[in-house]
Amino acid sequence: MSDVFISTNGDQRAIPGALDYLKDPDRDSQLLTNAAADTDTTATVIAGKRYLLTCKAVGNFYAGLADATVAANVQWVAQLSQPGVVVTIPLGYTALHFATSVNNGLAYLIPLK
Predict the structure, then answer these.
(1) Distance of CA 63 to the CA centre of its chain
(2) How far is CA 18 from the centre of its chain?
């Protein structure tokens, strides 16, 4: 049996217990939706905070600090078949841009403590 780890945007292992958030997403979680694939959408975030971005039902999510439909702006990718990716929002940013690979993509953006 192999271990499953979540990686941060610095390619480091995430905090212990990060997978526990998948079992019962925090009440402050945001459900991210995107009706049309490859459409830039934003979610409000808190500067300096860490979040777990995890796909819920269909599609992959591409996220960044600017228009996520532009490949050069994509900083994080959450794949449907993976537990998620830890996103650390830099100081000075309050919006997370995201796009999906399919219509009606769903994901959770879960604040980490």
Answers:
(1) 7
(2) 13
